[in-house]
Each structure stands twice: as C-alpha cells, then as structure tokens.
C-alpha cells in the first residue's frame, strides 16, 4: 500500500539590581528589537530565553503613534506600553532591569544613538536609521557581546547587515517548513477492493482496514484500488472511516475531490473551526459562503469579513465618503461571490429572494474585522477571507470571540501576502494550520486545482 501526499520570580529592591557579570560572552546575546516586532507580538521581549533584550528610545516614540485605534497593531502597542510601565515602576529604564520569569535575561531602553559609524549620515534622517544607530552604539559599548537586531522589516535587516550588524527576523510563531504544511488530505493507493465496497455499502469502516496508522483527526482521503476509488473522512468523534459524498451547497457543486472535502468540513456540525487554503480561483471563499448559506437555519447570522489592507500604504481615511463607502472597495470580492451564488437561481426563485432578504435583514453581513473586537459571537457562521494577511495574534483574537454554536472559517493563500512584516511562514493562516491540526474540532483542506476558468488557470500555471 502506497501513501502519496497531497501534500520563579525574585522580588527586586527599589534600586535596580546591578547586572551580573557575564561568564560566557560567546553565548550571551543582546537582542535589539524594532517597532515591527512589538506590533507583531507585544510579549516578544519575553521570548529570548536567558538573553538580554533592549529597545531603542525611537521605538517607544513610534509606539506612541500606534497607541490609538481599534486595529490589532494598536492593541499590541498599548499592551507593550503597559508592560514596560509595570516593569519599570520602581526603576529607571536606562538601567538593566530583570525580566520576570525563571532563567530570563535583562531589559533596558537604549538612549544613546552615537557611535563611530552614523547611519543617519549614510542613509538619511529617519527613525529606522536612528534604530540602527542605537544598535551600533550598543555594539561599540559592549564589544564582548553579540548584538542582534531583530526586525520584521526586510529592508532594515539588509541595511543593518551593510553596517556589519547581525540582523534576524522574529522567529517565534514562524512555521519552518511551509512547503510541508499540513494539507488535510492524502491519497492512498492499492487499497483493498473489499474496503471500498464496504464504504460504498455501509458508509463506514474501521480505519485499520485501509490505513497503516491512525490518521489525524478529521483528515480526508482519496482511497484507490485497481478499478475504483472513493472519498473518505476520518471521523475524530466516532473513530471511524466514513464515506464522503459530493454534496451540493446552495446550488454550488464541487468540481473536484478537494472541493467535496471542503464542503463536507464546512457543513459538518461537529467541526467548529475550518481552514481552506489555496491559490486564486480554487473556490475557497465561494465554497465557504455557499456552505454557510446551506446551514442558514442552524445559525442566526452569517458574517463575512476580511482584513482591510490599504493600497500604497494609504489608510482608508484617504478615500471619500462615509465608512461604508470607504470599505466597499475592500469588500467587493465578497459581494462578487455572493452574486455568483445568487445567480445560480432564477430571479423569481425563493432561493434568489432568500439571499436578498438575508442581506436586507442583516442575517448575512459583510463587515471589516476591526469591528469584532470585544464582541462575543454566538450562533453565527463567521467567515474570514484573506486570512493570510492576519498575524497569529489576530487569528487568536478572532477565535477567542466565539460563543456557543459558532463556527469559524478562515480562507486564504499563504503565499499571497499583502501586508508588510508578514510572509508565508509568519502569517496567521499558516500558524493556525500548523498548530490546530489533529484537533477534534478542526479540519483543514488545501485546494489545488483552479476552477475559476481556463484563462485563470493559465495565469496560475505559466505566469
């Protein structure tokens, strides 16, 4: 049988303790954090083990500009400022302060921006270059320590290396092997014909009859024998291998095995969290929306949301009109999918009218993600499109909003990142797929085949 992959805290005195003498200068490092790291993870300074952490004073100045607002980056800025305020309540930030926790290092704010090399003279006067000067100053002050600038800004890393400063990306929460990311399904060759017959006749069978080992919870399979094949699903609750039928979701029919798997997961009431990953044109958003409409009687509302990623780094405030007018351009792809589903039916049909009524009565709502902070979402299907543009913390925040009888769906393409400081390894969708796999409440499907049109497939394959 062949398996082929589809893929303890010490109490400090009122005067800060003197920094102990370092005995192993080769392994003890000082990490200098850029603003982008704090906005990505406000708890970042706690994640460098026994090493010391410092932030330039310029970073505090930049965080002051981010503290107001409802976006996740504003929350991260506020939380970090509160943490530093608490840490330095009885001390001066210019001194090395012990970080709370066992085997943790020390922390300080870097005030000095003077060194033999001046980044402002080389690159120009801007905050990024002041941060470089702080790292250069610390490197000159601490020649026996290894100074490492940590930033999610690729260009800043390149400039740092040009100045002979070691520079790294922030690795916490980063997926190491995106190419090997969990796909949610496998193809099993040379399965016994008796197993496939049993699945056709009974709808289920013991997994050890077809599989060499116990699969991940809610995993999908294409089982093949010499003359036939069947789609199957490992039911995590029942510990059974079950047949998957190609079901239609509100007029939308699956065109391949992966789409059938996606509809099965999206309409399965036992699965509360679903991710669907794939390139443009594979039907991610369409399948999620159609499946939600198919289950409209089981939930009070359907929410569709996507992160607002402004073009050319311009805030939506630059666009004319009220908030609805400003957001419409970003939500248009969701309306396009809704119109496609609606057009499967005649204008006089009850299905066509039902979608119109749901929008009018706000049973189906398209909304920006920023509006859900602080809410408890109960009895809804919540679909988050373009989830690859979210940070891991944003994904966690969304899931933590779930109340009783709520299903959350994330769709996106981990290789199509539109936001600065995120990549295929560090975005929230990749992080969620990697962390949530093999959980009984979770299922994932990677869609491989584009179904939008032959022309769209040409673009994906050749361009």
Automatic annotation (TrEMBL):
Residues 1-20 are annotated as: Disordered. Residues 29-158 form the PIN domain. Residues 1-13 have a biased composition (Low complexity). One of its GO terms (molecular function) is ATP binding. CDD domains: PIN_VapC_PhoHL-ATPase. The keyword Amino-acid biosynthesis does not apply. Keywords: ATP-binding, Nucleotide-binding. Gene3D superfamilies: 5'-nuclease (3.40.50.1010), P-loop containing nucleotide triphosphate hydrolases (3.40.50.300). GO terms for cellular component: cytosol. PANTHER family: PIN DOMAIN-CONTAINING PROTEIN, PROTEIN PHOH. In the N-terminal section; belongs to the PINc/VapC protein family. Belongs to the PhoH family. This is PhoH family protein. It comes from Pontibacter diazotrophicus.
